[in-house]
Amino acid sequence: MRPRPDRLGPEISAKPSVMAPGLTYASVSDQLSSLVLERPASRGWMIGFGIGLVLVMVLLYAVTYLFTTGVGIWGIAMPVAWGFAITNFVWWIGIGHAGTLISAILLLMRLHWRTSIARFAEAMTVFAVANAALFPLLHLGRPWRFYYILPYPNVMGLWPQFRSPLVWDFFAVMTYFTVSLIFWYTGMVPDLATVRDRAKGRFSRIVYGFLASGWRGSTIHWRRYETVYWLLALLATPLVVSVHSIVSLDFAVAIVPGWHTTIFPPYFVAGAIFSGLAMVLVLTIPLRKYYGLDNLITKMHLDNMAKLMLVTGLIVTYAYAQDAFMGWYSGNPFERYENLNRAFGPYAAVYWATLVCNVLSPLPLWFKRVRQNIPALMVISILVLVGMWLERFMIIVVSLHRDYLPSAWGMFSPTIWDWAVLWGVIGLFIVYFFLFIRYLPMISMAETRRLIHDLQPTGEER
Amino acid sequence: MSTARRGKRHLDLEAVRARLAGGNGRDYWRSLEKLAETEEFNALLRRELPRQMAAFGHAVTRRELLKLAGIALALTVLPGCTRRPAEEILPYARPPEDLAGDRPLFYATAMALNGSALGLLVESHEGRPTKVEGNPRHPASLGGTDAFAQALVYTLYDPDRSRAVLNRGRVSSWAAFLADLRGRMAAQRARKGAGLRILTETVTSPTLADQLHGLLAEFSGARWHRFDPLAPDNLRAGARMAFGGYVDTQYRFDRADVVLSLDADFLSWPPGHVRYARDFTLKRRVRAGVRTMNRLYVVEPAPTITGAMADHRLPLRPTHIERFARAVARALGIQAASGEVPELSPEDTPVFSALVEDLQAHRGSGLIVAGRQQPPIVHALAHAMNQALGNAGVTVIYTDPVEADPVEHLGSLQALVEDMAAGRVEELIIVGGNPVYTAPADLQFAEHLARVPSRVHQSLYEDETSALCSWHVPAAHELEAWSDARAYDGTVSIIQPLIAPLYGGKTAHELVAALLGHPRSSYEIVREFWKSQHRTADFEQYWRGALHEGVIAGTALPPKSVSLRADFAVSESHGRQASVRPGEEGLEVVFSPDPTIWDGCFANNAWLQELPKPLTKLTWDNAALLGPQTAERLDLHNEEVVELHYHGRTLRAPVLILPGHAAGAVTLPLGYGRTHGGRIATGQGFNAYTLRRSDALWFDSGLEIRKTGERHRLALTHDHHRMEGRDLIQVSTFKHFRERLHIVHGSVTEEQRLPSLYPGFSYKEGYAWGMAVDLNACIGCNACVVACQAENNVPTVGKTQVMIGREMHWLRVDRYYVGDLDRPNTYFEPALCMHCENAPCELVCPVGATNHSDEGLNQMIYNRCVGTRYCSNNCPYKVRRFNFLQFADVTTPSLQLMYNPDVTVRARGVMEKCTYCVQRIQGGKIRAEEENRRVHDGEIKTACQQACPAEAIIFGDLNDPNSRVAQLRAQPHSYALLAELNTQPRTTYLARIRNPNPKIEPE
Closest approach of chain A CAs to the CA of B912, in angstroms? Predict the structure, then answer.
């Protein structure tokens, strides 16, 4: 039997940090399932979804033109053969990392505060990785031959070239996407069952019933569920480190000055989590406001995420310093020039903007007042997202535009189609996310109920 | 609509459908073709279409819509069938004798630029000429070519060429032209041709000259005028001044140790430039043990490739060069060089005195060359100096002029214009050329031309002159025509066609024959002329020999001994150009042919338009070139549009700052700003001819510049001038080299192999291909770039794509400056795929589309490429090119013929790059295997190597220690570019070695 929450559970007392006082099993289930089942599509949701949809139309148009005409519609040329597409790819993959960090690593570390934000952070991961995975396909010169990168048996006996980081990338991203999706879905099954049970319409009962895959809430279900969920968390944990390390090898393996450095894997992972946390904050803040979730997502959550963001931001700052120092210390004239060119070349604005966004803007987070000031958090998070995008652009474009032979130097300037794809994919993310908050429980009811249980006066918080 | 009419139409369509249904496969098309020709079908279409157009006025019924769709289908399909011949086609059951499978055949012919012939071997694939090579037996070529020759096939297949005889702009026919001409010539005959004028370009063709002589004999009142915008008038006048008559001057750079060029760009100006490049670089092939090297001094206003080769280059404003020449002449003891003693700038003084000493020390092995832009007096002084130094007869050879009936062209044109103005010209026949566009602006040629009652123009394109003529006759291209032409030394080549005229073009011979009233084919005309010259029984053998060899033996002009006129004296003033008003430091204007589209005759050639100009690296445009000092003084920046005011005329031009350009002068390249003459030619750049005056064809003072505040974007392929302290082109001096030998780092001989994670390749058996580029011989002329383009089907991309950086050249010539921007040393470095042993590109390709062959080639598999472009990012040499869009033209029918069938035409989305001409390697290996032997050294030549006039590129087998490439690689000054990256390139360079005069540049 599934737990009947009606007044059976205890009321938690005044321990305000993880959740607001007065929540019960029933009130949580009511509140969260009603978001899916009862609350009509609000005007705000329609507007947000509409914006996303318009951007998706832009994306479809841009991609259609791209496929019929070729990647030459973008600003890429020689020597800058990678531009916005790869920048976006790395950026989106990075954003995904925070979701896995929150849902898997914090789970393993038994940090209760993850409960309220884990579900939609995971959703963000899935959507971000799905978006990221689009770009390697879009940026191909001959996208209709994308399957050449896959190791599939064929009569010609041809395999991918396994020394290429792009092949590793393929495996890394696909693994990441698969594990994230399964992890997300598995965690959602008990909640889907709750929604199924409360659904009134026949259609939604069938759909949610199908998605709940026969969950009855029996003890054996719970036992297996817990085992699987922990195992998946264990499986996802190394991915937080490995995926972006491998993405960073796309650059570190190449001999381009500005790419060819061993610090890249940890540097990229820190940057990924940094940008991902910023994205989680950007999503959390409006959600808790418009859906009245501030009882579940308290300032403590925001404060903790801000702290994490500050830590990863400092790691990123250290990486910048190391990158610059090693460029100089190596004595390699190409590396030295590359560093100077970043700071004082034609794209200097990108470099300094990156530093302002990623190094300076998180520094106020040392102060609790700032960490608990919601507008400030929102601004800093957006700055970090922009800054991390610019950092990817700097690494990719600014390194490529002046490498070894000055005769082959050139400039990159994006075309309207570069921007269309950038914003179109953001629109795709918005569409995914708005559908998610509309049709799936965005905070885990089962885990929250459990947390309420754990937080009984007899239990010890944290 | 009445039922009867509907019924009738219905029946017609039924009939058509029935006929269409009757066949399949080839028959299907053929019946459709036939259908289109039948009267009924045409009538049906005529009847149907207007009515159906009207049907759109009201609602279209379903039936009508279907019918419309049917007709639309038929009309769409029909043009698609036109490429298939309607006639019966048959395969070769028994192939023609000389058609050896799919192997190409080579025919010897020649091309003439400014009348001067360059011997060619043209590759023909099943009747389609696809590639031009130099004829090793031709004295002007010796196997080398220039960029113009390499681009010849593009012009041949250019879809914009004139395709029909035009009468006042309307399509007519050759027969109609002949009929019209017959009547008018009869009128002229009655008046002994008093109103007949012929205007040609430089004519060196003995046959054409003979025909024209015949014409003039028949029409005694007729006149033959000549105008070539780049004609060597100054050279003629200078020879007259020095020797009292016209002579041509040939140079023997292979015998000269010290060369002084007085504004002479002998490495890029015909006649003889290809041969001169070979001869000149022969003296610069520095190897271990070589004890001598020539030294070149160049005095010039605008940098040229000759100036870039100089050991000492003085940028002087054009009017100062005469003064410089006088000073040198006086210092060499030429008494005649009277006049003011010029003041040289402090930088120039040591060069001047060292130069004079050097010339004196090399009597008989020195050489002074004057440029044809310079006034006659400079030529006369050069003659006098060469005579005084004993160079005449050794390094300088005099002959009779190569041009038939030599004249000074400007005077000839002026006489014609006078006649036109006076109404004495009734019938003007313009054979080739484009005088409306190229004539000096003050002659107002176009205005006077309009007064001539009958104007005939024969040319390759419908150009500015054609537009003003009553008749336009399309000319046959050199690869379509029979003709003949003389080389710089007088050697005659027969020009033989490789293909029948694509658009029914006529040759000059046919036009002149038509004037005489005996229209004949040019084959007959040329052959008969030579038959008359060679009246022995073995004519057939003689003729076949001439065609086979590409030269007629013994036709070179014999050396002529000349002596200075006893009364030779150079007085103060020789015409306007010589009169340098002292102290006048205003701006000077300089006119020069454009390095890639020349005088404008190649303006519609996309290969040449997209070819980066050797020094500016500019494509698709010309620009007002000026030096950094001038730009600073006038506060001008690149791409800024300025107004040039000169003698009441105005021209707007974008500025391009050219390091090394003389201060106080602005160079305006000719050939751009076309208004007619093809889609590519028109609308690019500005027309500098509009400022060119007959009293100052080459340069003048009195230019003013005004800023406009506008900007015109230029497509440069190379916008960084400096090496940023990187040792990309390693340079040393000859003295250094002789003393120490080891002057480079990254030397191949050191074999510093850094460790690699991956195992190496083994080439124990078979071949290991490699290339060596001698930077000391490379003159930066770009012949290799176009050769590569022609051989490898490299597409052009257009100006906007070049501006982004998407040019597709597999081979580029890097140009770097070292030193002071006002007087830099200029170095060229051809950059192509290095075929690295540890190729960074191979490692990162996810699909293995670029990989390593067992002969060490880094190969591209286009079919496998998915277009990640990772390989290009990881290529430190940035020699990979990506098809960002569908760049290759696969729709224009005439351009289809141009493609080399041995090389894949790449579609969009794939990476490409230099293959070391793998198709030639395979061809050579197959030949060798058929004969059961190894490939001989030098048997396989890459396209760039074969085109190079200076033999700066050597390709061969590194496994053979005796191959030329292996030996060059073993030279002490051989180095690998970016060797520190451990890419271990197969392409290596021989360091650039300068030979500065120790008195000017003490070590």
Answer: 12
